[in-house]
Fold Sodium-dependent transporter.
Amino acid sequence: MGVSRGGFSSRFGFIMAAAGSAVGLGNIWGFPTQTASNGGAAFVLVYLVLAFCLAYPAFMAELLIGRYGQANAVTSMQKMSRNLWQKRFAFVIGFGGIICAALILSFYGILAGWMMAYAIEPISKLLGFQQAASWLTVQSVPRDLIFSALFMMLTIGIIRRGVEQGIEKWSKRLMPMLIGLLILLIIYVFTLDGAREGFNAYLNPDFSRVLEPDLLISALGQAFFSLSLGTSVMIIYGSYIAKKENLVTLAAQVTLIDVSIAFLAGLLIIPAMYVAQAQGVAIFAEDGSLISGPNLVFDVLPSLFAGMGDIGVFVAFAFFVLMSIAALTSSISMLEGPVSFVVERHNIERKKATTVIGISILLLSAIIVVNFDLLFGLVINVSTVYGQPIIAMLCCIFVGWIWYRNEILAEIKQGNEDVEHSFFWKIWPWYTKFVCPTAIGLVFWHSL
């Protein structure tokens, strides 16, 4: 790879960066909520199966495109094209993914700002600043603008430093910290009244629900979206991987870390819900559905922390720091996609491109904050419900139907000489060609 582009200096660095991109609020916030709403352990079981049987092959396809092209998403896909219509199709997929990543980051920055505000709130209480603590947890335009800006400045600061000194360096620091905090919180929650009932609901599947259509579709969607598929993020990360690396193994390791952290998040939040219920907090409605739904983190958990007494201040701080770290490891990958495109296609210096694009996305976040009721849900739907599945599906179609099979094999063999005779190669090309586009299309159809 070109020295000017930079790249990951180690296998561990790539795994932490790619896992950091995949592990975000979708895993630590979205996965437990989906689990609680879809039969607990039955959902977990289906999610784990689908993550490896369907999401992993699509994830592998995006990494392969990036390493083959050694460039941003658009250029990498156009290198695989042989005529004008294919190049135009490649541009639509690559640039569509970049736009999708920018839109996701615009609302993601707002959510991450909330997490940062909630992390500071316990410290404010501890210091006796009750008015400030109240301001931090009540949604308002000034609070949202300030914390969205703080979060975006952190993201810009990391991306300005490049791949090795920015993305890789900080991912190697933040991801172990995230995993450590998660495990410590799980251990603590396990000691509280009501936790055992939550662990039982989370770990003992009701096999009669495993084949429910809604559960299958929800689990499939969570598996695809938690791996950052359909945003061109993994294409650009793939372009920073050395040719000598075994992509089959690397992609499997990242998928394993991603689903493991999602599993650990459920192991924390589902029992925590039952602990809160034991303390008198209403969790489920009479029909068994979640009362809070997507607002679970901001409604139920603060009530749980408040019921813990003095130690609840420290647990609340640790939890929302954990959420902020998860958000940051994802946001740096989402900003890298647009930045790499502008740097390489328009020959603009990285620091300048990062600052301009980052501030532009922050301005979009500000517009969403000021018009919250109108735009917040709309941007989420456009980017995640429509954008991600369409781009991910088109990406699989491109690899399965346009990229020549012998070229794909040659690219994989650079880091794995024996792959041609492996079980992976016998299955993966057909998965990518037929099963993955159909499965993603099914998720998209259901979402409509």
In short: The chain has a mean pLDDT of 86. The first helix runs from residue 11 to 22. The radius of gyration is 21 Å. The chain has one domain: 11-447.
